[in-house]
Structures are given as C-alpha cells and as structure tokens.
Amino acid sequence: MIRRPWQLAHPRTAFAVMAVFLIIFPTLMSLIGGDVTLASRVLILATFGLGVDLIFGFTGLLSFGQAAFYGTGGFVAGYLMLQHIVPNTLLALAIGTVAAALCGVVIGALSLRQVGVYFAMLTLAFGELFFFLENSPLRAFTGGESGLPGVPRATIPLGFTTIDCTSAVGTYAFIAVIYFLGYLLMRRIIASPFGRILRAILENPERAAASGHDTLRYKLVAFTIAAAYAGMAGGLLGIFQGYMPPDAFGIDQSGEIIVVTVIGGAGTLIGPLVGAFVWIYLQHALQNVAVISGVWKLILGLIFVALITGFRRGIVGGATALLRARRKRPA
Amino acid sequence: MDLHLVAAQLLNGVALGAILALVALGLTIVFGLLGFVNFAHGAIFTSGAYGGWVVYTKTGSFVLGVATALATAFVLGIVIERLLIRSYYNRPPEDQILVTFGLAIVIVETIRAIFTGQTQTFETPSWGNGVVNVAGIFYPQYRLEVIAVVAVTLLAIYLLIYKTRIGLIVRAGIDDPLVVNLLGINVRRTFMFVFAMGAALAGLAGVFDSPLLAVNPDMGTDVLVQSFVVIVIGGVGSFGGAIVGGLIAGEIISLATAFIPDYSQALLYVAMALVLILRPQGLFGVVGRS
After folding, report:
1. Which positions ≥6 away from A138 have C-beta within 8 Å?
2. Mean per-residue pLDDT for B191-196?
3. Best residue in A52, A115, A117 to probe B by mutation, most B CBs within 10 Å?
4. pLDDT of residue B1
C-alpha cells in the first residue's frame, strides 16, 4: 500500500513530534524574526485549515464560504463572553463551535446537492450572505462594521483555581492545546472508516455511491465538521485579538484559508499548518522589506498559481514526493 | 409609498441589472463552451475599469476610454488563456477554480501595486451628465445610456453566436469539441477567442460601471459574486438566463436598497437560495447539463 503523506509516521510518533514542535514553535519563530503572537496567528489559521483540508483535501469539496463559519463561531463566542452571558472561555468557544456547525448543516444541505463549480459558487454566495447579515440586520449583536472590541482573553476556571491564559504566551499555550487536540481528532477522523469513505468519494463519487454509501450524508457530516473547526478557530481569533473583526466574515477570509491549505498541501493534514506559516510569515517578513512591502500578496498569489500548476499537493505533497523518490533510489 | 421613488428605483434596477447581465454573460458563455468558471472574471472587470480610467482621465475622451477597456480586457484574456488556462482544460474543475482564483489575486494585486489601493473617482462623461424626463420622473441620463449600450452589446453578441459562422463553430464546440476538431476546424483558436470575448464583456461592464461606482482595485469582487448569483438564478450556460437573472438581481438590490436598506444585499442571496430549492437548475437552465 502506498502511504499517503499524513500516514508517513506512526500516529504516536506523529503526535509526539507535533507536541514537541508546538512547544518550541514560538522559539523557532523568534529565531527568524517573528514572535509568539505570530505563532498564535499561524495556529489559529491552521486550526481553521484542518477543516478545509477535511472537505477539500480528503473529500474534494472546494468551499468558498468557510468565512461564514469562522465569523459565526467567533461572533457567537465573542458576544457571549463580552456580554458576560457565558464568562467561561471554553464553554463560550464550545457554543460558538456548535453554532458554526449548525450553520454548516444548513448551508451544506443547500449547497451539497451541487458539485464542482456550482458548489463553489453557492458556498461563495452563502458566505457573502453571512457577511451582509453581520453587516446590517444583525448590527445590534455584531457591532456591524466596527465588530466586537474587548473580547476577553482566555481563563480556565478549575473550581479550586483558575488557569490564567491572558498573557501573550498564555494565549499561545491555550491556542496550541486546542490546535493539538483538533489535529489529534482530525487524524482519527481521517483514519476512521468514515474517513475512508470520504476518500472513496474523493477518488470516485459514483463508485462510492454504487457501493451503497449515501455520499450526500457523508459529505454533509464532513462539511459540518469543517464548519465546527472554522467556528472554533473564529472563537480563538476573538480571544487572541481581544477583538472580533467583521472581516472574519469577508470573502477574502474564505479565499485566504483556501490559499493557505493549498499552498501547504491539501490532503496532507499538516498542510494547513505549513501553509499558514508560509502565508503569515512571508506577509510579516515581506512587509518589512521596503521595496516589496506593498506587493507581498502579489508574491504569494504568484506562488499559489505556480504551486497549483506544478504541485497539486502543495509544499508538503511536493516534499514527501521528493523524499519518496530519494528513498527508492538505491544507495 | 412614493410612486416616483419606486419608478426611479425600478429604472436603477434595470441599469444595475444590465451591468450584471453583461458580466454574467461573459461568465456563462465561457462556461458553456469551455466548461470553465472563471473566478478571475471580476479582476478582469477591474482591469477594464482601470484601463478606461487611465485613458479617459488623460485624454478626456470616454470613447477612447471604452476602447482601451475593451482592448485591455481582451488582450488580458488572450494572455491568460495562452499562458495558463489552456493547460487546465483537462484538469478537474477544482483546479480550474483555484488557478483562476489565484490569477484574480495576481491581477488585483498588480493593479494595486501600479495604481495604489486608493479609490479614484471616474467622472461621468459630459454627454451623460444631464437628467431626462421619463414619464414624469427626472432620471440621470447616463444610466439610460448604460442600459442602451448594454442592450446593443447583448444584441450584437446574440447575433454573433446565433447568426454567424464563428457562432456556429462556438455552438458546435459546446456540443462536441472533438468532432468539430476532426472536421478540420481549429477549436483551440475558437476557445481562445471565446475566452477573450468573455473577458472583453467584463472589461466593458467595468468601464461603464465605473462612473456609477468609483474605481478601486477590489471593485470586481462584489460584481463577481453577484454575477455568480445571476447565473445561478438564470441557469448556468444560458444566454437568456444571464439577462433575466441580471435584471432580477438588479431589481432586488435596487428596490431593497430603497425600502429595506438593511437587507439590500442579503435579500439577493435569499432569492438565490429560493431558486435553488425550488428549481435547482435555475430559471432557464436545462436539467442534467454540467
């Protein structure tokens, strides 16, 4: 059997490597001119991207409306904490995640009957619907164009004591733990029989359906899980920034997460993490170079086009293909 | 309800719908022939607007501006098709979407790098500055002219596709590109021409929309999404669907803006969802076409 990029390492090894990486990631960042907040931003985007990888990389659904769930999760969690309705950070995040998942069920049910181009256009349009709902009719809750300033940082009450994650490092640790759990869970989902059927749908939808699988239902479940990941990531964004921006609902946000996932490598599980790092780090690094500070997005756009044309599986896919070729060659 | 306001908004809806129909028609023709939805269509719209703006502000001639917009978009279409799109015809739709989406980023960011991100005003041409008395309503002349120009363009495109030899090849190419190729007709050149023509329609829409909107590197995004809604409502790949869908979308936006401003944009997507639930193939779409 050909091992896929995400299967190259044994699960336990992969989890250990990931845990160690997450611990040293802020240090690595500071070595190359970044800092802990930059590392936090990478992990928020990577959490968001895990869901996109599930539906695009493993199921073949290209959704251009993921910002709808990112925004929903973020604004619901942010509003609940800000208004002291749910002061508990974890509970507020959980409610935001569930709200995003529910929106995922509705939008998924409406768009998944279509495939390919139609699906992409529909999700894009639904994404815009959410943006405009946030912007005007729901202004009273979302703050409209100003968003929600003052979202409190994370604290975890344990009864006898409270873990305080309000510092920059604390916020990073909080986000890193959630990303780690999200990665763990996603790896299990992909390896489960459910995940196998998703891959069957990706490879050959007709055959998967002919084998007796209700492909629409599998796709809907996958879409809902992706929406939940997006919602959780949105909640993290609010906590991290202390502010929930309306841009979270924006069409650029939906595009960005696709670019991030594809640059890193769709269908590789760690692709979104790699892509998020490249996206955020290059943005940070290029913005400090005078001549090209204004064109960082142009450069990333060119990289993106080159990668789609050359490496369908992005940086991670390209790297594993190289590794495999080298291993096969006799020493 | 103020009837004059309703009438004025209805006319506004026609003008907006005309622009959307023009953009959507370019998308839908390319989709019909190439099976390709061009996510860079909005960026090409923007390139036409900027091309027109530069020449118009330099020379003061709106006609030259329009010609530049058409040329910019047409040439951009040819370059894109030759360099990139051509190698994507046999790849999955997701790849085609991604590469055109990436192209859109590249085009928009190039425009931003050249012209900065600042919003520029695009003066209404002198011959469009007046108001006209339309059955008791004083209505801006320019919008009526936009409607007229779009109507003429749509008619020309219709005649081109349904009454000329090249149109015959295009329609035959939609049905069966392989056979057309076997008959000794250069299908690839037809593809390139159609792609560039779709781009030119977007560029034309861009320059005519500019005096109504103002020019900005991101101006194409909303238009692209709205024209997606138009072709979902009208039926993907349908000529009539693009026009009727455009007018419906224009009226929804324009009437909602006047009477329920909070929902001016949201309502459009609600209408799209309704069409999808009641008639998934769109108003003029054919079942089973993909």
Report:
1. none
2. 90
3. A117
4. 60
B130 touches chain A (CB under 8 A): no
B156 at the A interface (CB within 8 A)?
no
Prediction pTM value: 0.90
Q: For A96-138, how does the pLDDT look when each residue is reduced to its tens digit (9 = 90+)?
A: 999 999 999 999 998 998 887 888 888 988 998 999 998 888 8
C-alpha–C-alpha distance, residues B250 and B196, integer Å = 25
* Closest residue in chain A to residue B226, using alpha carbons only: A125
Domain ranges of chain A: 9-251
Planar angle of CA B32, B33, B39, nearest 5 degrees = 70
What's residue B173's pLDDT? 76
Which of A117, A135, A302 is opposite residue B37, by nearest beta carbon?
A117
**A314/A261 Cα distance (integer angstroms):** 8
The 10 Å CB-count burial string (b at 16+, else e) for A111-143 is bbebbbbbbbbbbbbbbbbbbbbbbbebeeebb
Q: Are B217 and B46 in contact (CB under 8 A)?
A: yes
B37 touches A: beta carbon within 8 Å: yes
Whether chain A has a CB inside 8 Å of the CB on B236: the answer is yes
- Tell me if A120 and B97 make a contact (CB, 8 A cut-off): yes
ipTM of the complex: 0.87
Residues of A in contact with B98 (CB under 8 A): 62, 258, 262, 304, 308
A284 alpha-carbon distance from chain centroid? 19
Whose structure tokens read 């003429």? Answer: B152
Going by pLDDT thresholds of 50, 70 and 90, the confidence category of residue B52 is: very high
B264 Cβ contact partners less than 8 Å away, ≥ 6 residues apart: A132, A136, B253, B256, B257
